[in-house]
Amino acid sequence: MRERMSGKLFSQLTLILLIVPANVQADKPVNFETEVAPLLEKHCIRCHSPGNPKGELSLESAEHLIQNNYLSAGDPDSSYLLDQISSSDGTRPAMPKEGEPLTKDEVDIFRRWILEGAKWPEDVLVREKSKADGSWWSLQPLSLITPSMHEQAPEDWNTNPIDRFIFAKLKENKLSPNPPATRRELIRRATFDLTGLPPTPEEVDHFLKDDSPEAYRKILDRLLASPHYGERWGRHWLDVVRFGESNGFERNVLINDLWPFRDYVIQSINEDKPFDQFIREHLAGDVIGMGNPESEIGSAFLVAGPYDDVGNQDADQAAQIRANTIDEMIRSSAEAFLGLTVGCARCHDHKFDPILQRDYYSWYATFSGVRHGRRVVATDQEKQEHQAKVQPLQQQRDRLTQQLAELNKNILQQGLTKLAEYDKKWTREPVSRLGCEETFEPVSVKFVRLISEGQDSNFRNRNSFGIDEFEIWSKESPSRNVALASQGAKASGASRHIEDFPGAYGPQIAIDGKTGERFLATGGTLTIELPQPTTIQRIFFSSARDEPNPAQRKFAFVGEYRIESSLDGKEWTVIANSEDRKPLNSQHRDHRLRTLEETPEHRQKVAELKRELAKVNQQLAAIPPLPVVWVGQRVASDAKGPFHIFLGGSPQRPGEEVVPASLAVLSKSEAKYELKPEAPESERRESLANWIADNQNPLTSRVLANRIWHYHFGTGIVDTPSDFGYMGSQPTHPKLLDWLANQLIENNWQIKSIHRQIMLSQTYQQSSNYRKDAARVDGDARLLWRFPPRRLSAEEIRDTILQVSGKLNKKMGGPGFRLYHFMQDNVCTYAPLDKHGPETYRRAVYHQNARASVVDLMTEFDQPDCAFSISKRAETTTPLQALTMLNHSFTMDMSKALAERVINETGENLDQQIKLIFSLCYNRSPSAEEVAASKEMIQQTSLAKYCRVILNTSEMIYVN
Fold this sequence. Notes:
The chain is α+β, with helices and mostly antiparallel strands. It has 33 helices and 20 strands. Among the domains are: 109 residues, no CATH class; 260 residues, no CATH class; 67 residues; 156 residues, no CATH class; 70 residues, no CATH class. Strands 5, 7, 8, 10, 11 and 12 form a 6-stranded antiparallel sheet that branches. A two-stranded antiparallel ribbon has the order 1-2. Strands 3-14 form a two-stranded antiparallel sheet. α12 packs antiparallel against α20. The longest helix is centred in the middle third of the chain and has 37 residues. This is Planctomycete cytochrome C.
């Protein structure tokens, strides 16, 4: 037995011996579940699981042990495994390769297990244990806790339940809260918090004069009703859902029809749409809201992330790219809504959280039918009305197109009857990208031009073609190439233009003596001017002279051509053409026959039909098209199963079958589901959406409540907002988090009510004053003994500068503006603009953010790259921030605009000018010392330069 076994089996069987627990009593039967399985989980399953079957052996169940006589039940001496986990000469056994070897007692127990029949109960699966299990805090049902009054708390801190939670934790840590913030601080804080803009001087004055107890509540109501609220909090959500308007990866092409999703997010948040409905629309809006664009557009979430559209002809690589695409949807959905890193289970069971690889591929089956792309998003009535206008014209167009096709077919049939006659005239070899040679009687020329009469890949296209080198050879002996630029020749002709690589495909490439690059003609002509008249007799030109497989080149070559010469550049004579060359293929032959057989009558009839067709096409073009949006497409064939676990994450290694289902660790929830393999693609995503948004799902409401808290205080109760698992942070106030989550559900998942509860609390309204004694205990103010001050986000900084200068265009929605110059060839380039014109003076949320692009001021102030979901933003301090703010033309323009504004509103009174600037930028009045210093600077420089300094101050961009 042992000699017959392969080395692979030898290493595989070895692992099973790790099963045996130590210090067992020999007279008791070995209990597989309590003695063997734990050792497999501890020592073996990490390397020998379905997702990571080293040596092609999985130890999750008995299946692989039974195959190929891996062990001999009842006969330990014939079981190959014992050789691997034991050693007779005192050396280390072969297995396990890592960790401590099995003890003598453990080996003995394994021997007895085999002797007793090596029984493995069918219902026992061995799995590597994650660090967290089903008892993990975030997976537990929401606790129903109402905090009791705290006898040591001030009266105001016992009113709002939020304050009771916070005060109790402060007292635990022997801390006390700060006093309330000033009213100026409070309105500035609340206004930036809810709208991302500063309060106006009039709004501040009105609040300061309002002595009613409801004054602050009225401020909150006004701000929550403002359309700017949706713009600010919509920006938060767009970070979470990795919204970006280019596809990333190598090509990074702009997506110009994804902006409706941004507008949908802003509108939904302004309307206080219940967030459970919002989530359902993100995952299945095209299912539950088909025919209702206001809901259907929500499913653009699935395709709002980066997307590799390069494509690959290799089937294995194409499958891998597709798997990566679905993986991006899985990760984004799980992190945004559940705060779980489900994507970590792609290759194996999650190492830290109780998420199985089977869970991951259940979601894979769920998203399998979604493809990136665009389609019409309109109501049923709009589609019917549009079709009623378009259909008659389309039928007319089809009729005319058919008539044209019949004419061409008839004339082709006529030409085919003369094919033998034409064949005798086509004596030379077809055109070749490797090179075409033309010889002719010597002729004196100063100009030579190549004119395309059809591409080799599209015989109707006479314009674009590629030339790597065009040679003109003189009659003299020895003959020389007089077309070389080094000989004084000049080339001209319209060519492909690439802004970020100027001259890359220009005409001079065709006469530089090299063949590595191509002149890409777009006008159908290449003209060479010689330095002086020269007698020539040969021309040679090519498109892929040095290519091993020129047919694979993507650039077209000429399929039909003529070459003309001239002495003055005005009068031209044909000196060569391709008329006597053989056709490249049957399509080329047919094109030639049609051309040769055309008669004046035929051309006239074709021209008439084309005129009619052009008129119909013009009428069709005049009908406004239905809106087309990058919202994804449902491809039924992609959703056909069966679906499998990918072993090691490789699509080429299918494992066991899976079906769409909810996470196994939450299988006790009433909302759990498991669908049949043949369930429609739409039912899968709708089931997932309903399960995620169900009130009984403990993760969704916790994660959302924590995100809201995070954006109000700068740090969440869990400071890893998209990771509520083992590798995330523990909550500082777990009971408060559950209370907020319950409040969210009780308020129909509408988040404006949560804003009010948080912002009406004393916790939120306290000052941000720093106290050394408190900071020694809680330096980051995680326990909220003070309100944490914050710097404005990149978008807020830009929007604020525009607002105080009086230049902010508050137009909402529609296609975005760009702060970069976009250049596209095969890949795309984004060059930051040095000058920002008035067309860019909108709120930054409407900027067309492209992945991997740089946008000067906003990039310097930590606007994130939207290639990934951003659960919280960085806040760095760098020299470039100061340099950009001080020197960028945008800041200088806004400084001048601010100066003009204050002059227009206050006249020439310097004191009033300074007071207005402070009120606009700082929401306060200047002190006497500040007025004196400001006057001195303005008198020594100018008001515009003084405004430039103000725009560069910390107080301008920090909120206390």
